[in-house]
Specification:
- The chain has helices at residues 16-24, 32-42, 89-107, 120-125, 147-159, 175-188, 212-222, 281-306; strands spanning 47-56, 60-68, 77-82, 111-115, 165-171, 202-206, 236-237, 240-241, 247-250, 266-272.
- The longest helix has 26 residues, at 281-306.
- Helix 3 runs parallel beside helix 8 and helix 7 packs across helix 8.
- The chain is globular.
- The chain has a single domain (16-79, 90-264, 275-306), classed as 3-Layer(aba) Sandwich (Aminopeptidase).
- An eight-stranded mixed sheet has the order 1-2-4-3-5-10-6-9, sandwiched between helices. A two-stranded antiparallel sheet has the order 7-8.
- The protein is of the alpha/beta class.
- Its cofactor is Zn(2+).
- Keywords: Hydrolase, Metal-binding, Plasmid, Zinc.
- It holds the Pfam family AstE_AspA_cat.
């Protein structure tokens, strides 16, 4: 693979002017307001719409969550996040589609909080980073440099809620190799050696709380609607050892991942592959919805057993 990126000098980390060059090359390809906020508004008959912040870039982007209208403190709280990487389309629309199709059903068992698009600038420009060339999904920690992460962290802190489960919806796309990995290497002055892109759906569990049976239940549900990614010849996915079929683990807290933002005992990140030969936008969204359903069915059964 070609690791040369048109901005910067190979082997030397970007300076501020390089980041400004990168930002100036970005253009909007779609509308957060027309494609996401409009769908959020369609769901307000059944769910409360709450603005938890605003991103003040060249354009102002309001940040929204949808939550259960009737909050019941006897029910467990679950968190669903999408669009932490704005370019990962099915995460955004999977979260919204889940609420539209199944939200009321699962609201009978859980208090739901859904943040469908944490990075709206990234959604519009089809980017992994924010305008400052910062990856929001490496920025979920105190004093975060990413406003996308900082706004959501503040909302969670102010809400003082505990969560039983958190599922964070992502994609792995071919543009990881054509754009993001070369850009990351250029930004950091390094050489990228991992070009693996799994051909199908997989999960990233948290090494501090891996919950293998929880992950397995999600994989089994997703298998009903889309393909699970096979491991490569090294029994790895994206350079990480396979824990079980379709599952690898990261230390979400240490890496500043969104899945590490709460103390929920059951957490996972989904990864859908939209560039497969048999993939369609609808199929990828269905995979995200199935992952949420599988996760909720598992923790719901567990919660009944405890009670």
């Amino acid at each position: 693979m070609n690791n040369i990126y048109p901005i910067g000098t190979p082997g030397e980390p970007w300076q501020q002017h390089h980041k400004e060059m990168w930002f100036s090359s970005q253009v909007s390809h779609r509308s957060y307001f027309n494609e996401v906020v409009s769908k959020i508004d369609e769901l307000t008959e059944n769910f409360d719409k709450v603005q938890y912040g605003t991103l003040d870039y060249a354009q102002r982007f309001p940040l929204f969550i949808l939550k259960s209208k009737v909050w019941d403190n006897t029910k467990p709280n679950v968190l669903i996040t999408g669009g932490v990487h704005g370019y990962e389309t099915s995460g955004v629309h999977g979260a919204l589609d889940f609420l539209a199709r199944f939200g009321k059903e699962y609201e009978a068992k859980f208090n739901l909080i859904v943040a469908p698009c944490i990075s709206p600038w990234g959604y519009e420009t089809i980017n992994r980073w924010n305008p400052n060339a910062i990856d929001p999904n490496r920025s979920f920690y105190s004093n975060s440099p990413a406003p996308e992460a900082a706004s959501f962290i503040k909302y969670l802190a102010d809400s003082e809620l505990s969560f039983l489960m958190h599922i964070d919806l992502h994609e792995t796309t071919d543009t990881d190799n054509s754009e993001f990995r070369p850009a990351l290497a250029a930004r950091d002055g390094k050489v990228n050696h991992n070009w693996n892109i799994p051909d199908g759906f997989y999960l990233v569990g948290h090494t501090q709380k891996p919950q293998p049976e929880f992950q397995k239940a999600i994989i089994e549900e997703v298998q009903k609607v889309t393909t699970i990614a096979p491991a490569d010849s090294n029994n790895e996915l994206i350079g990480v050892a396979l824990e079980q079929f379709g599952v690898i683990n990261y230390d979400g807290t240490k890496l500043g991942l969104c899945m590490g933002v709460t103390n929920a005992p059951y957490v996972t990140t989904t990864e859908v592959y939209p560039d497969g030969e048999l993939s369609t936008p609808e199929n990828c969204i269905a995979g995200q919805v199935a992952a949420i359903v599988g996760a909720l069915n598992y923790v719901g059964q567990l919660n009944r057993e405890v009670q």
